[in-house]
Design brief:
Layout: H1 4-16, H2 24-34, H3 38-44, H4 49-57, H5 66-80, E1 157-160, E2 165-168, E3 173-175, H6 181-190, E4 209-212, H7 214-219, H8 242-249, E5 253-254, E6 262-270, E7 273-281, H9 300-313, H10 321-332, E8 336-340, E9 347-351, H11 373-378, E10 391-393, H12 401-405, E11 408-414, H13 417-422, E12 427-428, E13 433-436, E14 446-451, E15 475-479, H14 480-488, E16 497-500, E17 504-505, H15 509-525, H16 534-547, H17 549-567, H18 594-619, E18 625-627, E19 630-635, E20 666-673, H19 674-682
Parallel strand pairs: 1-4, 4-7
Antiparallel strand pairs: 1-2, 2-3, 5-6, 6-7, 8-9, 10-18, 11-19, 11-20, 12-17, 13-16, 14-15, 14-16, 18-19
Length: 702
């Protein structure tokens, strides 16, 4: 039985709790019943009229001591003007909910609908979650749901506006009182309830992300724009800027990237607790327009919806989509796991099988770039891998009269072709070993010096071994998938040299699976689903970008994450001060793996050539041009339905191009006249360049 002392302690704890306010609608009713305007109430409470409006529509909550005064006023009004059917002496505070400041019915929810989880009572006090219905733009019907992890009740991120409202996922709005960057970091870690759980049991939780609008940046003492002669991604605040000094004075640190568009502020890990906050500043071009189309022009609540959906389906952004793509690889294949030391019995970090480990690994000389120290220091002159995406156009002299009379050129773009190539892709996990005159084995990933000039293909098709589609003229370095395709075509291969890896694995499998699911789910949100017929699919693709601009932006970001992540596996040196032979920062990452990038592109190019060959066999059609994952065919009509192969049952023929939303399947990307396409070829241009969709995987920077 509890003692008297324990009971009094519990009662005192209840007395010391902050008072609960009635629902926002009730606050407005009481004020109007008393005949008081919002401006007069603001004057009495020494605040602004906008703050009173925010309290009455649920966008923010007052803080003590203003909270206590406001509560006393509302209690007095409640005694004078009770709600219809309520007893005059009933306490207003007794009706207030604990997890939200508005009843479920007013939020359009039923009693059985899932609610935003309440902040655990054992943690620091946090603002209550509020609906976004009162934001400056109505929230869309489909909103990302808050994180299920009770440690992060308010989701992975928030978009902070200049009025102190932080918009999160699921329509919640938090009140952020911070007036400096240091206060913002401390509020985020101590009160916001933001963050995301790890994607792998051996990984780490995602740090909370705060996205700053231009008004919020200025309020925190940052410049609205970050100007300079450098590229936007290279711009940083100078070390003597007041905000940087405040951060350092408060014992916080910045990464080597400094205080730029994507700033990470942290303290060294103590125990198992991470103290790190990621900032993204919209007016500093943190969100690239190519990867996040029109997102910066959206209202904060909509920006939170876009980024929150991306965070929940892919990963919490930590930089450009290229950076996020690389971070996702590591998050799904953590480099270490807990292992028990047999001597001490303690649990220590150990290598996680299937990962790339914690230490960077130098590539074989033919896999490196010309400026890499491995090449410069050794004086390597034996050539390099040239595994790049297609950039080919058929010679005009190879066009038949029948093709020239066809009125249309139709572009087909493969959905995330490089993502499809990453599926079940076996890559090397250990350092390369050098071999002379090896026997080719298609199951061993690596780089092979072999002569494929004897392999003949139809001249109306590009060569599968070179990016420009021309026939090889002698020995060259190829990735395993390229050499294996020569065998598949029925030709013997005799390697001269090889750099091979003994430890192998499907490193990109979980990365592929997560991004594929995100891509397909987002397309489904836009009305493009797997159960559509080809006619319905083309119609849905025609209008999908207009169905929901927010989800269309998420889809664009997912596609950019795929290409950027693959490209960043071979990030080139950045900056004018770089000198050939020096090591650049990207080389310190275990994920600087040009051989893995080459394997993905090699497999994607081989997959494309296989489809081109099958199309020629089934239909007698040959492409006009190929640029990366976009192929252009002559056609009698303006639709791919006019030339794609279908069985008598009406089903698409396997092996050739097929329409659909799944990665690796095709979609219509543009229609132009045949005369226009021929004119471009006569001028030496590639028609695919003028048809939307044919972009390659480039080496990405930050």
């Amino acid at each position: 039985m509890a003692s008297e002392e324990e009971l009094f302690a519990s009662v005192d704890a209840l007395l010391n709790e902050e008072p609960h306010l009635p629902p926002p609608a009730e606050r407005a009713r009481l004020r109007e019943a008393a005949g008081i305007t919002q401006a007069r109430l603001a004057t009495a409470l020494k605040t602004t009229t906008q703050s009173v409006k925010n309290w009455e529509n649920g966008r923010s909550e007052p803080k003590s001591p203003r909270l206590d005064a406001y509560q006393r006023l509302l209690n007095g009004w409640a005694a004078k003007y009770p709600a219809p059917g309520a007893a005059p002496t009933a306490s207003v505070a007794a009706t207030a909910p604990t997890a939200s400041t508005e009843p479920a019915a007013s939020r359009g929810q039923t009693a059985d609908a899932p609610q935003t989880p309440a902040v655990p009572a054992t943690g620091p006090a946090r603002p209550a979650a509020r609906p976004a219905a009162a934001s400056r733009r109505p929230a869309p019907k489909k909103a990302a749901q808050p994180a299920a992890d009770p440690r992060f009740p308010h989701g992975p991120l928030a978009v902070l506006d200049g009025d102190g409202c932080a918009y999160g996922v699921g329509g919640i709005v938090l009140d952020c009182p911070a007036t400096s960057v240091v206060e913002l970091v401390e509020w985020t870690l101590g009160e916001s309830g933001l963050g995301a759980p790890r994607l792998h049991r051996n990984g780490k939780d995602s740090d909370p992300l705060i996205v700053l609008t231009a008004a919020a940046a200025v309020k925190l003492g940052l410049p609205e724009r970050l100007e300079g002669h450098e590229q936007r991604r290279s711009l940083r605040l100078p070390e003597d800027h007041p905000v940087v000094k405040q951060v350092v004075k408060a014992k916080w640190r910045l990464t080597q990237r400094g205080f730029g568009p994507w700033a990470r502020i942290y303290r060294k890990v103590q125990g198992h607790e991470r103290q790190c906050v990621q900032l993204a500043i919209l007016s500093w071009d943190a969100l690239d327009e190519r990867s996040w189309p029109s997102v910066t022009q959206m209202e904060p609540a909509d920006i939170a919806r876009v980024l929150g959906t991306y965070a929940q389906r892919v990963i919490t952004p930590r930089g450009s989509t290229a950076v996020s793509g690389l971070e996702l690889m590591t998050a799904l294949r953590p480099p270490t796991r807990a292992v028990q030391d047999p001597q001490t019995g303690n649990w220590v970090p150990g290598h996680n099988p299937g990962s790339l480990g914690t230490e960077p690994m130098d590539p074989a000389p033919p896999e490196a770039t010309p400026e890499h120290p491995v090449v410069v220091d050794s004086g390597w002159s034996g050539g390099f891998l040239n595994e790049e995406a297609y950039q080919w156009v058929r010679d005009v002299s190879l066009l038949s009269d029948e093709e020239c009379t066809l009125p249309y050129a139709v572009g087909l773009d493969l959905n995330t072709a490089f993502l499809a190539a990453a599926a079940r892709l076996v890559v090397g996990l250990s350092a390369p070993d050098h071999f002379h005159n090896p026997v080719f084995n298609p199951k061993i990933p690596g780089s092979w010096l072999v002569d494929l000039s004897h392999v003949e293909v139809d001249p109306r098709l590009p060569s599968p071994f070179t990016p420009d589609g021309t026939r090889p003229t002698g020995p060259a370095w190829y990735q395993t998938y390229t050499v294996a395709y020569a065998q598949e075509l029925g030709f013997n291969v005799t390697p001269i040299e090889a750099y091979l890896r003994r430890e192998t694995g499907a490193y990109l499998d979980p990365w592929h699976d997560r991004l594929k699911t995100a891509y397909v789910d987002t397309l489904a949100d836009l009305g493009v689903t797997k159960d559509l017929s080809d006619v319905e699919f083309l119609a849905a693709m025609e209008r999908h970008k207009d169905a929901d601009p927010a989800m269309a932006a998420v889809l664009a970001a997912i596609k950019a994450t795929v290409k950027g992540g693959i490209g960043k596996l071979r990030e080139r040196p950045q900056g004018r001060k770089y000198k050939e032979g020096e090591r650049w920062p990207a080389l310190q990452r275990p994920t600087w793996r040009p051989d893995i990038r080459a394997a993905v592109i090699s497999k994607a190019r081989v997959n494309m050539h296989r489809k081109l060959r099958n199309m020629a066999t089934m239909t007698g059609l040959y492409p006009l041009a190929v640029l990366s994952d976009c192929v252009v065919y002559p056609s009698p009509g303006d639709s791919p339905l006019d030339f794609l192969p279908y069985a008598t049952s009406g089903k698409p023929q396997p092996g050739a191009f097929r329409l659909g939303p799944t990665p690796g399947l095709a979609k219509l990307e543009g229609v132009q006249t045949m005369l226009w396409a021929v004119d471009l070829m006569e001028q030496g241009h590639n028609p695919a360049r003028h048809i939307k969709g044919g972009d390659a995987v480039h080496d990405e920077g930050e």
